[in-house]
Structure prediction request, 145 residues.
Amino acid sequence: MPTARYRRRHDSTGSDSRHLSIRIDRGVDDVYAYASDPANLPAWAHGLGATVERIGGEWIVASSPLGRVKVAFVPRNDLGVLDHDVTLPSGETVHNPVRVVADGTASEVVFTLRRQPGTADADFERDAAMVTADLTRLKEVLESA
Prediction:
């Protein structure tokens, strides 16, 4: 089961951060390789959208609940960093910090959910539930392979 780890981060805007994590019984290299490939997003990141395609060098999710969005991951790296930016139809970009860390022979995936300005408590909880569901699907996909 995923665990929610709460830590309030205070800055000049008083924003919240919530760390959502899940343990996956697969090695860190396998988890990172799969999760870092945007083509795999539809299989596990339903909260983002059901389809993704590469158009002109960019990864586009046309079926996002928020409309057409662009997803851009940081370059592949040996540190397990899966940070990615989601650019909304409004042009606003949301940065999503994600890490894959070794946990013995398994892995832990940690997603830092940041409350965006003006986000109501109920919407923040809904976002946390969607991320948790996505992480659970990632675990199921990788452990069943």
